[in-house]
Amino acid sequence: MKLGIFTAALPQWSLEQIADWAAGNGFETIEIACWPFEKASRRYAGVTHIDVASLDKTQAANIRSMVRDKGLEISSLGYYPNPLHPDPEHRQHVIDHLKQVIVAAELLEVPVVGTFVGKDKNKTVPANLEEYARVWPPIVKFAAEHQVKIAIENCPMIFSWDEWPGGNNLASTPAIWKKMWEIIPDDNFGLNLDPSHLVLQMIDYERVVCDFASKIFHVHAKDLEIDREGFYQNGALAQGMGWQVPRLPGLGEIRWDRFISALYRAGYNYVISIEHEDRAFEKTEDLVLRGFLLSRDVLRPYIK
Q1: Mean pLDDT of residues grouped by 10 in the chain (304 residues)?
Q2: At the N or C end, where does the chain have fewer CB atoms within 10 A?
Q3: pTM higher than 0.85
Q4: Into how many domains does the chain fold?
């Protein structure tokens, strides 16, 4: 396996600056944020380190050479919107951009695009699955035509009362994944697995790795602290509100030795990409970098 970072935590840096720093600090891969140039809708969204809308073959070749010359690989292109958004205009906008990210991945010879399935939080799961069955098959087919795998992150996207009760991402539980892949059984459609979202939902992350080994295309390293007072005051049904605290690997509830051991047993041999969303390490640029280094030192003993 290889250890990398997701660039979204360094929005003010250029891609080359990030690549220089990553290579100089013992990382082997970078996952590149590829939102369109627009106002961010939430933390860590709206970050653009490659403008996929204007990317051409020459630019892609230059990026590939720059990254390769530093001894790095691009593990994935990341864009995490809501392709099942209830507003048709917004939905089409994000799907169009997602397709541009897929084309960019092909040009860059990057095998994976990380994204969300999306969801209309005001509809039931069965109703969302019906919409998914209409919207997603053409996207998956488009990715296959461009030799790119789609890796869906398993975040339920419930971080505020505005997102309650259903969240904005359908693909959050094993039962739903099974239904999704019954509808779209394509080999190039799987998971960007983030164990922190399983802790949030009290789902056994070791069993998930075992049960869905063939569908794990990419892995995010993010931890989760459960604020026990917040949990006591708000309860489990207030999911993600009042007790969920995103942390860097090693600072939360996850047993990274057990999780990574499960990945080895399952035959996973790609990338573990640190997704930095820890507020305690984001007030300054120096703190962000220290957060990545702390995560590196926690994870590196298990990654060879």
Answers
A1: 97 97 98 87 82 97 98 98 96 97 98 97 94 98 98 85 74 97 97 96 96 98 94 78 89 98 98 96 96 98 94
A2: C
A3: yes
A4: 1
